[in-house]
From TrEMBL:
It comes from Allorhodopirellula heiligendammensis. It comes from the Bacteria. Residues 1-23 are annotated as: Disordered. Residues 1-14 have a biased composition (Basic and acidic residues). Pfam families: DUF374 (PF04028). Residues 84-150 form the DUF374 domain. This is DUF374 domain-containing protein.
């Protein structure tokens, strides 16, 4: 190859790289617009049916907020339930990147990080979440994220509740019509527009100063497991691959939240 040919090759490389970057940026913008449109439409058209909703009682009796604890698979459905000023812990993954503008459009406050031990940015995100909750705002965490295994609750939610002094409210959100991403580790569920969203709450879990955080995480895990078996037994069977958990009434902890 001649010297002139080498120079020509080197000169063209940066332009090709810039072209690829422009295509990637455009693709991301289009993707974000489609996601935004879909979720806005879904949020406006779904019908929410609630069961065992204690949120107003918590606010009334204790003048405090709470932390939604949900499965990673139910994040998309949670968009329909989101309240303004809810702090949402969002992973630093590509999926999390798509959620940020969507959450902002709903009035939520995305906080980037992870609830997993040792995850990059986890400690900083937790400190931001604690300040957010202490300021009198609710929060939401996908407690088995960002990498699973599905249904295995990390103790970040227990630490947040302990440090901020507000209760954990386990919740499952099951769309009547949905698309299930069966190959994803969490079997993510995408609600269809105009569907009915079955929203079932567990009893509030209050975390004391001396409570063992691993044990609290197990309590949240058990509550979510029971709720999913009660609300969506077919999906629970597939996702958890275990025998059904007995559905007995949970001991109410509302009095401790007062």
């Amino acid at each position: 190859m001649s010297h002139s040919d080498q120079s020509e090759t080197v000169d063209r490389s940066p332009s090709r790289k810039r072209g690829r970057n422009k295509k990637i940026t455009l693709t991301k913008r289009v993707e974000a617009m489609v996601v935004m449109w879909y979720f806005t439409f879904m949020r406006r058209t779904v019908r929410i049916r609630v069961n065992n909703d204690r949120r107003d009682a918590i606010r009334h009796h204790s003048e405090r907020q709470f932390i939604y604890a949900l499965l990673h698979a139910h994040q998309a459905a949670a968009i329909a339930l989101s309240d303004p000023n809810t702090g949402a812990l969002v992973s630093r993954s590509r999926d999390g990147e798509l959620l940020v503008p969507l959450l902002k459009s709903c009035g939520c406050i995305p906080i980037r990080g992870s609830s997993g031990r040792g995850e990059k940015g986890g400690a900083t995100a937790l400190s931001h979440m604690i300040r957010h909750c202490r300021a009198g705002h609710p929060a939401v965490i996908a407690v088995d994220g960002p990498k699973g295994p599905r249904g295995k609750v990390q103790k970040g939610v227990a630490m947040l509740a302990q440090k901020s002094g507000i209760p954990i409210v386990p919740v499952v959100l099951v769309p009547g019509r949905r698309i299930t991403f069966a190959k994803a580790w969490d079997r993510m569920q995408l609600p269809m527009p105009f569907c009915e969203l079955d929203c079932r709450f567990g009893d509030p879990i209050v975390v004391g100063e001396d409570d063992d955080l691993d044990q609290v995480a197990l309590r949240v895990e058990s509550s979510l497991e029971r709720l999913e078996w009660a609300t969506d037994p077919q999906e629970a069977t597939i996702a958890r691959g275990a025998r059904p958990v007995p559905i007995d009434s949970e001991a109410s902890l509302l009095s401790r939240a007062a």
